Amino acid sequence: MKMSNMLVSTLREVPAEAEIDSHKLMLRAGMIRKMAAGVYNYMPIGLKVLKNVEDIVREEMNAAGAQEFLASALLPAELWQESGRWDVYGAELFRLKDRGSREFCLGPTHEEVFTDIARNEIKSYKQLPVNLYQIQTKYRDERRPRFGVMRSREFIMKDAYSFDKDQAGLDLSYDKMHDAYVKIFNRCGIDAKCVAADSGAIGGSNSAEFMVKSEVGEDDVVFCTCCDYAANIEKAPSTPDVAETEELKDMVKTETPNARTIEDLVKFFNTTEKKFAKTLIFNADGKIVAVMVRGDREVNEVKVSNALGGVVDLNMATAEEVFAATNAKVGFAGPVGIKVDALLVDEEVSKMFNFIVGANETGYHLENVNYGRDFEGTVGDFRNITIGEKCPECGGEVTIARGTEVGHIFKLGTKYSEAMNATFIDENGKNVPFVMGCYGIGVTRTMASIIEQHHDENGIVWPLSVAPYHVSVIPVNIKDEAQMEIANKLYNELRAMGVDAILDDRNERPGVKFKDSELIGIPMRVTVGKKITDGEVEFKLRDGEMEVIKIDSVLDTVKAQFEKQGVRL
Amino acid sequence: MKMSNMLVSTLREVPAEAEIDSHKLMLRAGMIRKMAAGVYNYMPIGLKVLKNVEDIVREEMNAAGAQEFLASALLPAELWQESGRWDVYGAELFRLKDRGSREFCLGPTHEEVFTDIARNEIKSYKQLPVNLYQIQTKYRDERRPRFGVMRSREFIMKDAYSFDKDQAGLDLSYDKMHDAYVKIFNRCGIDAKCVAADSGAIGGSNSAEFMVKSEVGEDDVVFCTCCDYAANIEKAPSTPDVAETEELKDMVKTETPNARTIEDLVKFFNTTEKKFAKTLIFNADGKIVAVMVRGDREVNEVKVSNALGGVVDLNMATAEEVFAATNAKVGFAGPVGIKVDALLVDEEVSKMFNFIVGANETGYHLENVNYGRDFEGTVGDFRNITIGEKCPECGGEVTIARGTEVGHIFKLGTKYSEAMNATFIDENGKNVPFVMGCYGIGVTRTMASIIEQHHDENGIVWPLSVAPYHVSVIPVNIKDEAQMEIANKLYNELRAMGVDAILDDRNERPGVKFKDSELIGIPMRVTVGKKITDGEVEFKLRDGEMEVIKIDSVLDTVKAQFEKQGVRL
Fold this sequence. Notes:
- Chains A, B: Belongs to the class-II aminoacyl-tRNA synthetase family. ProS type 1 subfamily.
- Chains A, B: Its EC number is 6.1.1.15.
- 2 copies of one chain form a homodimer.
- By secondary structure, the first copy, chain A, is α+β, with helices and mostly antiparallel strands.
- The first copy, chain A, has 3 domains: 11-236 and 400-451, BirA Bifunctional Protein, domain 2 (2-Layer Sandwich), CATH 3.30.930.10; 252-380, YbaK/aminoacyl-tRNA synthetase-associated domain (YbaK protein, Alpha-Beta Complex), CATH 3.90.960; 469-564, Anticodon-binding domain (Rossmann fold).
- Helices cover 27% and strands 28% of the residues of chain A.
- Chain A is built from 15 helices and 31 strands.
- In chain A, the strands form 8 sheets. In chain A, strands 3, 7, 8, 9, 10, 11, 12, 21 and 24 form a 9-stranded mixed beta sheet that branches.
- In chain A, a hairpin with a 2-residue loop joins β14 and β15 (287-294).
- In chain A, α1 crosses α12 (443-453), α2 (44-63) packs antiparallel against α6 (167-187) and α2 (44-63) crosses α12.
- Chains A and B meet through β1, β2, α2, β3 and β4 of A and β1, β2, α2, β3 and β4 of B.
């Protein structure tokens, strides 16, 4: 395209609304504009990148044998009532009514729809396996939309759903999707690590996330420093730190006025956090649950939820609920005599000696408490792993980094097919539920993640595979006929080769054109200036040095970059 | 693709929910499935056609210099309040609130969004013209969704918005879109006629619709039998039928018990409908308006609305409102002594002599009424043109046919840019509003219209340009290794040529495969059977006769079809 005909919306200033690099650059390069909190318009350059990412996803999904489908975004409540999610999905669901007062939601995910399609269209095991996917707009009314399209309320997702006749089939479908995802993220030029994940509220048996490391990521990812192990902190098992054996002392109630936090108590008792066991009280779908971890540990809510058989709403208990359970103000809860529906004790706590806990009496704590002698509960892993703990695979040390989830693959099993009575006739003539998997990629988030990994102080540095344009041809002086003639000729020849070139024929200074080209992140730049009298132009990779090359070698030089980066022309 | 891996959802039975051919065939061919009233899922085969139509639209829009954009479907109320449409857009608008109780709608059209983008991004006349388009999901809560995707509540539309510095620029942008639309519908293989249309509630100065003739169309289109004139009936001007001159007689009040309809009155007075003038009473945005047309004519509400300066809500008056205006029951309204905010008199009525009207008294009519002597009002064209009237262009006879609108091009002028203060700096350094045009194509409706024009008793007959697959390769006996080898070879060679071929390797009888291929509407079929021993296969165009051809001429035969139909390989 000729830039004189384009709506170029680059900004020199860094917009105040943006916090992270990808968001700033998407605004500055004129890729997106905000419509409302977490709702964006895609400007022409942004949409071009989005379509390129979509095409990569589409090609790899098709190559893996999946078929593209397109479901409605407007979903009737009845379908969600059938799966049981209508009532449990909270404020994240955009709900609305039509003119006849029938209830709908805007789909945040489409398990119900695809399960419904399968039960209507697939009758026999002979038709299996089937993998259907779509690239579609999703809606989630996030409590805190932020970071541009990284966490938005309207976003584009590729979601796929596989239907198999048995677990072995699902395993195969899952592995195919895993491999397709590796290819997709590779082709997009991002380093996305596949990490073990918890199955979460969506249900099912096995799941992995594709994470990109990012300081602004919303997940903690545990990596082994020795082996390939990687897992979401939600999932990574902790290893109990075994305290040195002590003789059991008599339990003592001690007045601890004004000391309610672990910090206060450490001072008061002049000891370390490790000598305490915290008792945190939750409301888990209406049940009151206490969870004990060592004073320096963090409760892992996913592990807690799973131990309780899957909790939809897990919240810290209110002061009233704490009082009902402990007969004390917040800050004095402990396991001895507590009135709760369940008491979960982190394994580490069960192996401590003579530790300090709240006394369930305002202003008091108990010293020399011991598990088994003084209280009992459900022992398990209820805390987050910490840096330096043992890798569950090799025993090496783990480290933790922030990450952003760009993809998720998930063995759902029969959770939805059973709930929605989605069955097929198997080899024995019996009606059995589909064994399902689901597989998501945040397409708009992937686009932002590519920028997070590919930018510098001047702008975006697109991998060729997803770049909005491949080559920018810049005549230095548009009033110079010879320069314009060569620039036009190169532009047309590149386009005839299948290269998506732009000609910056705007009446602007070369500096402005260079800055725009770098900000937008076009991988190659051909500058047509005075050197044409020597038959030469300047060639520059976005992240390389400027070289002077012969005019008649431009096409080959560009072609070589496509070959080098493995991008088809 | 190999059909053994495809989700094939063809139906032998005609689904009860469908009334028109395209809807029946889209269901039977497994292209769409209903999710809710007017809300559909696109199955793999349906989506392939949809994408093909989209690609044609995209190519021609790009060729016309438009740039693709993607706006959110979730639109904040504020933007619609600015244009004034939030309060006047009725029940068709899906409205919802987010978790913070902020109001949103699901966009039924995007004038506000694109005007907002233009005012933020375009500063100077130097950047003009700009034409931005999107292919996007739209939402309209239709009172009566029907005919499948022909009139649905969630549908895909291409909408474009042009921004020019003046009317001459808009004229050029509009003409470019007209030409692009002609190419698009031609390439899609449908006969769509460009007809003059009313500007309607959307406002503006000039507009045309692309209509396909259809018995189930929701518009009446007026065609001249002599020249090229074509217009929506909303727009086509009528020509007053001039009655023979009579001497004015004295007005007489006559008791007409039990006669309230024109039919009753024709009997009662033993005369013809042409001797009556009907007085219809409307509520037009709260004002009470009476409209008079000859007894055998129909009021044209669009003409009425335009005469009143644009009415948002035009409804027949209630019995109470009629009584307030006429002091009589419904059926006795007339112009003499009526109490209304406006009295609109069709020109034809103003030229009648000694006609009969309601007396504004229950049970009475007035005879020998004459315009000018007995009452006065605003004279104009307020009725529908009828078959046989004069063409406004050439004076020939017009005819009327039902049609479905697949596209609409529209000169908006400065309606939105003025309302939303969207201005740029012109050559003289002055801030002036953009001169806008908007241009829509119903993409999903176009797909259905193609089927309406291309089907037979066995199924769909896709034009090659939009067909879900180009060629179906059918081995007669999948257990015959020689047949399978040749079928596979042809399948692979066709795909290597860029032909989207499918191999029907399902374990089904040939009859089933032929039926599916015809129902889905694949343009070419290559049947690999016993004749391979003579080096031959059967070749059949979907709408042609079966021929026996040499195996090694298959590729050329297929290629020739692409050339013949002008479709690029």
